[in-house]
Structure formats: C-alpha cells, structure tokens
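REQUEST ID: PR-0412
SUBMITTED BY: lab tech R.K.
PRIORITY: routine
TASK: structure prediction, single protein chain
INPUT:
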Amino acid sequence: MCNNKMITFIALLSICSAARLDNLYLPSSGGNGGNGNGGGQNGGGASEEPEIPIISYENVNNGDGSYKWSYESANGIQAQEEGELKEGGEEGIQSAVGSFSYTAPDGTEIKLEYTADENGFVPTGDHLPTSPPIPPEIQKALDEITAAGEGNGNGNGNGGGNGGGNGGGDGGGYRY
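STATUS: complete
OUTPUT:
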C-alpha cells in the first residue's frame, strides 16, 4: 500500500513540476523589447520591407509531363522554365531548360541558364567559377597528343597507329 502511495506522489509531483514552464523555455509572444527600452524585433506580424508585386506570372501544366512556368517581379527578378518528358528509361526522362536573373546586393546582374535531364543539372552563367587555365607545359603535351592522333591513319585502309585494324582515316588515335 505504501508503494502505491509513493508512486502516486511521484507521478503527481512530476505533473505539477512540468505543468508550468518559465519564460526562458517559451518563445516570446510578440516583439522582443530588448531591455525594456522597446527596441525589439517584430513578432511575426507585418514585415518592415515592402511587398514586391508580381508583374507577370504563367504556369501551364499539360498533364503529359510537359510544362512551362515563368514570373517577373517589380524588383527585376525573372525566372522561367520549360520541361518535357523525353523517351528513355522505364518511365521516360524528365528534362527541363530554364533561367533566372536578379540583381545582387552589390549591384551585379546575375543571370543563370540551366538544363536538367539525364545528364544532371548543368548551369551556365558569367558569375559561376571557372576552372583555372591549363599550364602551358600540359597544353603543349595535349596538343602533341592530338596532332599524333590525327596523323596516324593514312586513309588507305591500313589503319596505322595505336588502333591497328583497318580503321582508315583516324588510325585509332585519341578522340576528344
């Protein structure tokens, strides 16, 4: 009997201690007043930045895997994409071509064009990083390899060079 009273007492004590959380565990309700001087954040109501109107909007879904959407906002943001379901794979291959543009905070015009298909997402844009230039020594070696590959075949069907066989013109050399 004493054991049941003890379990009941512990359960009641646990419920009472968890019933009220102090403010340091609860999110603030409204503005954050700072140290009582009223300079806080807005509590989720109206934003201080003005709303940017949408100038144009289009969204077409044809139901067969093809679609087209675009929008433009008053602050110069533009985006558009067209997609289709191409043949291939078990259920087809979804492909898309699109672009978007906006002005970065530093005033730079950002424009990105992209394709997305069985080859993955392929973006292009002037702001994207590029690979460093090929060092001159390596470029010279690549040029020599290319020249050697082009000169191997004599075009008469004996296919000299690396590839052997009767390949003719390119002689089985390297291709890029």
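NOTES: The radius of gyration is 33 Å.
REVIEWED BY: pending
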